[in-house]
Design goal:
The chain is of the alpha/beta class. Strands 1, 2, 3, 4, 5 and 6 form a six-stranded mixed beta sheet that branches. The longest helix has 20 residues. The mean pLDDT is 95.
Length: 556
């Protein structure tokens, strides 16, 4: 009955829609993964966690978990202490929980950055998120669950803490070592977890993160396929795979303590903490944010109250002479070792270079190659910008012909006038409307690029900021080349067959680029071309050479 009452009440209350990170946090609060938390931190709880790694009652808790909402939105909803607020899923708008508001407060972001993440340095992804993505007001209070978040991927291996504990009981597992990962697993990871199981006479819980990880990480769909492929490599009955919907903060030492608490809540008795656990990489000075074993040191400091045994591990390295992996601190002096860094692995995936079986399993490599095709199978966008009648449309058409002749992928052409007619017919020519038009072109180009196609766009795109946003968007999906067709205005006027330049000069057309509206010449173009000096075929050839240089076309 109480569930039905909450469902009914949730539909009548003011509501906020959660962010992706808030959704991850909420799910783990509601299912007990974040026990002892019963809601989002109040100001007193937040301050205590930031300053002392503890809740006000002394309970160990390392990472502040808060609900950030814009003050303007709270005022609009008339939210204050004592209010009840529905929290909705951003994916399907379902009510997930009701928050009873305890207090509203403004955090000191600089203190959180320094105390929790070790430095107020926005090269740290969590610090960057703190300053650029969190809203101005934090809302504390306890939660009542209405609906569990609905997932449609890997449902069979998404388990709550109570379900994982029940699984251990069913399997008669009494000693379980948990392994945290946000990266694909290879032979060294399998060896590390088996060594931990042997040392502690335990079974293994592989619990990868499938919430938010570090920007640039491999997507969780690919990673889970890798984990599923590697599970048969364990002896039968030794290991289980279960996914964790955690939004990582990459908080190094504090995050390791947090992860240990979470794994205890899931029923594990042991937890592996490896080298540079949850490390975010380099700071703005080019140094590692944390020492390689700083996370192990902090977890061991609190081992007596964590109620889970920490299994610290050194990095494993491969010994080709004996065909085995060994912790680097146990390797005899003078022994030959081999290793492949993450950077080198990405290079081999990108170029199609071989990945040896001593490093990873063929099944894993195949999955990673499918998700990271070589350059000649990836998409790209050539974005031509320039004045009206500068020749960019002619270059675009000729380039499409050349790429179609090359073969290997479909090639789409997005001419300025075509986009205006098909996608942006309602837009005028104010700066805002021009930026919207260019943004739409960028969206289409990024989707074509993501699908492995070649895309040639040829709008005027007079404003640099809009072009930069397109570059950022498309570059996430594949290659991006900005070509500035810098044909002089006088030549463009002479080359204009429609007479629009003359009409603009005569005052009939207002805001015409090059006459009475600015064209901001790109400062970072990959190629600058001028059809008054260079033939169309030569310009196309120079673009082809750029694509060949980077491996998008040609057989290497």
């Amino acid at each position: 009955p109480i569930q039905a009452q909450l469902q009914t009440e949730a539909e009548t209350l003011p509501y906020v829609t959660l962010t992706e990170r808030q959704l991850c946090d909420l799910e783990l609060i509601l299912n007990g993964g974040f026990s002892p938390l019963e809601g989002f931190l109040t100001e007193a709880e937040y301050t205590s966690v930031v300053e002392t790694l503890r809740l006000p009652d002394g309970t160990l808790w390392a990472i502040p978990i808060y609900l950030d909402i814009a003050r303007a939105e709270l005022d609009k909803l008339n939210v204050s202490a004592g209010s009840r607020l529905t929290l909705r899923d951003p994916r399907d708008d379902r009510p997930l929980a009701i928050l009873t508001v305890s207090d509203l407060y403004q955090p000191d972001r600089a203190i959180e950055a320094a105390k929790v993440y070790g430095a107020n340095d926005q090269a740290h992804p969590a610090v960057h998120y703190l300053f650029h993505n969190t809203r101005d007001t934090f809302v504390g209070g306890k939660l009542q669950a209405v609906n569990a978040p609905q997932h449609y991927d890997y449902v069979a291996i998404r388990r709550t803490p109570s379900e994982v504990r029940a699984l251990f009981k069913k399997l008669n597992w009494t000693r379980v070592v948990a392994f945290q990962t946000r990266n694909p697993m290879h032979r060294a990871h399998r060896e590390l977890t088996v060594r931990a199981a042997r040392m502690r006479h335990a079974n293994v819980l592989i619990q990868p993160v499938v919430g938010l990880t570090k920007p640039g990480d491999i997507d969780h769909f690919t990673r889970v396929r890798v984990y599923q492929a590697i599970m048969p490599k364990y002896p039968n009955g030794m290991a289980q795979l279960s996914l964790l919907p955690l939004a990582m903060r990459m908080g190094g030492p504090r995050e390791a303590v947090w992860h240990a608490i979470i794994r205890k809540n899931f029923g594990a008795t042991h937890f592996i903490v490896g080298r540079d656990h949850a490390g975010p990489g380099k700071n703005s000075q080019g140094q590692d944010f944390y020492g390689p074993y700083e996370a192990q040191d902090l977890v061991l400091k609190y081992k007596d109250e964590l109620d889970i045994e920490v299994v610290p591990f050194q990095m494993l390295t491969y010994l080709p002479d004996t065909d085995e992996y060994m912790p680097i601190n146990e390797v005899p002096e003078g022994t030959k070792t081999l290793n492949i860094s993450g950077t080198e692995l990405r290079r081999r995936l990108k170029t199609g270079a071989p990945i040896p079986e001593w490093f990873s399993y063929p099944e894993v490599v195949r999955i990673l190659r499918e998700a990271n095709p070589p350059r000649d199978k990836q998409g790209f966008t050539v974005f031509l910008t320039g004045l009206h009648a500068s020749g960019k449309e002619a270059i675009a058409r000729a380039l499409q012909v050349a790429l179609n002749q090359e073969g290997g992928r479909s090639v789409s052409l997005l001419l300025g006038e075509t986009i205006r007619q098909e996608l942006s017919s309602e837009l005028g020519f104010t700066k805002r409307e021009r930026d919207i038009n260019v943004a739409r072109i960028g969206f289409v180009a990024s989707e074509l690029t993501r699908a492995g196609a070649g895309c040639i766009a040829a709008p005027i795109a007079p404003y640099d900021e809009a072009r930069q946003l397109v570059r950022q968007q498309v570059s996430k999906a594949g290659g991006f080349y900005l070509v500035h067709v810098a044909t002089p205005l006088e030549f463009c006027i002479k080359n204009d067959q429609t007479g629009v330049y003359q009409r603009a000069i005569d005052g009939e057309i207002k805001g015409f680029t090059g006459i009475n509206d600015v064209y901001e010449a790109p400062e970072n173009a990959d190629l600058v071309a001028d059809v008054s000096k260079t033939s169309i075929s030569q310009i196309v050839h120079e673009i082809i050479l750029l694509l060949e240089r980077d491996g998008y076309i040609g057989d290497r």
